[in-house]
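Milestone M4 deliverable, item 7.
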Amino acid sequence: MLVLGIETTTSRLGLALQRDDQALGELELDLGRKHCEKILVGLDGLLSDLGVQVSELGGIAVSQGPGSFTGVRIGLAFAQGLAVAGGLRVAGIPTLDAIAHGAALWQGPLVACLDARRGEVYFCAYKRVADRAERLDGEVMVGSPERVAAHCAALGPRVLLVGGGAVQVRHAAGAEVVLAPVELGHPRARVIAALGAERLGRGEGEEPENVEPIYVRRSDAEIRRGAMAGRT
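Output delivered:
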């Protein structure tokens, strides 16, 4: 099965193609939130470079968030549109799951985290065993770097911090944690594609309209609307 992986939750646009268990190619561009302008052009270029037609796709995997609210919406809308047009199923992949799976050389507990702004971090704990990252937390959470540092301390003396929010947490946690290399801090479309291919291969994909974003908290715009409503 040929699977397209889509990642738009950070400043980088990522697209990747995977056929069964083989990675075919990946496109990654740092666009500073201009995903909507480049995602279709990027996909056309990736397909052309690999000599693949969009009609050959057997499924789509997309990063669900958390991350940039706009980026999450763009990625999901693009995946859903392609899936509806091609009669395909979609595998939604939590963004922090992709980051945790990307830390391939680590064995033991890790915390994947992304900058949530407002002085907070999205985070989730995992344990890497062999080539898998298994969740230790039931859901993605959001909190201060100090809260995440305390969460790391509860996992033991040697915990890997990985993701775009890792430096913030490292300052709060001190030397008790290990900071992953910067290049592991971004969710990768090739990981999204690989995880999605596994799920779709097991028949676990969903109808496009059933794939939901993972926001964790309300956007700034929603908070402002709520505050304005409270003053009227």
